[in-house]
């Protein structure tokens, strides 16, 4: 089993499968994109599967496929299917911008994907265009409705940003009245790849909740599953629920069970650390499974207590969520 030096067991792998994306969300990357990695710099499927298998042997039981946009990586369904058959992995989830999800849904359902997080920051086409710099709102809404019909557990990720989508908070909450969906409001973080100056947020978890309670005073607090990153609530008589993720104010680090592997195979023991070790180079230099296991143990034995401590040690705190594997 894999534990860190603060006694937290690691159970959940977030695997960034590409740093590329077909959108340009301004809070994630600059308009011109990033200095995207060459194919040879990115882990191959075989390398990703090997690391996942080794981690599964160490007690990791859940994997999230993310990026960049997972569905822009060629043959991604092959990787998803292979990961889902690894012994010990009993939950495979995907985070996607939803622009090309529909064509993959039947196969994802057949593979038995447990849940999909759809990123959708607003319910208005113009605002969507301003935020993502691409006119793909209709495709994403089609994906949302297809997800609702599919019966796959669905969460919506909405990054809350002053002057961009505050007017969407209540309509987004109200989606949960009609749909069995969990809407999660995420505090904006500084990881925008240098695309914009980051100013400390005013729309933090507390303010988001106060705003919702201003419209719905009888919001009910739901129990938060162990190691959940969201504080969970429900509107009266809603079919779904909503959560607030204090990603910037970082009040949730004490129960963090996550391992991040970036598309280039760097380990991040915390979202806010700079990337501590290249498993890509280690594997390509011939490391054995046992050496890889020991390296994971060593690195997690030196893990920051929380995101603030990790940020202090980080050499590159403002990279893009797409290269981190959000
Ligand atoms: N492209 C996919 C998508 O957008 O769902 C997966 C990768 S994306 C980096 C994963 C999640 O990170 C998305 O929900 C996105 O909204 C979120 N994200 C990206 N940049 C962020 C930032 N600076 N602060 C907070 N969340 C961010
Ligand atoms: Fe692409 Fe996701 Fe980043 Fe938006 S948040 S630019 S969809 S990787």
From TrEMBL:
Residues 5-226 form the Radical SAM core domain. Gene3D superfamilies: Aldolase class I. Pfam families: Mob_synth_C, Radical_SAM. Coiled coil: none annotated. Its cofactor is [4Fe-4S] cluster. InterPro entries: Aldolase_TIM (IPR013785), Elp3/MiaA/NifB-like_rSAM (IPR006638), MoaA (IPR013483), MoaA-like (IPR040064), MoaA_NifB_PqqE_Fe-S-bd_CS (IPR000385), MoaA_twitch (IPR010505), MoCo_biosynth_MoaA/MoaC (IPR050105), rSAM (IPR007197). Keywords: 4Fe-4S, GTP-binding, Iron, Iron-sulfur, Lyase, Metal-binding, Molybdenum cofactor biosynthesis, Nucleotide-binding, S-adenosyl-L-methionine. Its EC number is 4.1.99.22. GO terms for biological process: Mo-molybdopterin cofactor biosynthetic process. The keyword Nucleotide-binding applies. It is an enzyme of class 4 (lyase). GO terms for molecular function: 4 iron, 4 sulfur cluster binding; cyclic pyranopterin monophosphate synthase activity; GTP 3',8'-cyclase activity; GTP binding; metal ion binding. It catalyses: GTP + AH2 + S-adenosyl-L-methionine = (8S)-3',8-cyclo-7,8-dihydroguanosine 5'-triphosphate + 5'-deoxyadenosine + L-methionine + A + H(+). This is GTP 3',8-cyclase.
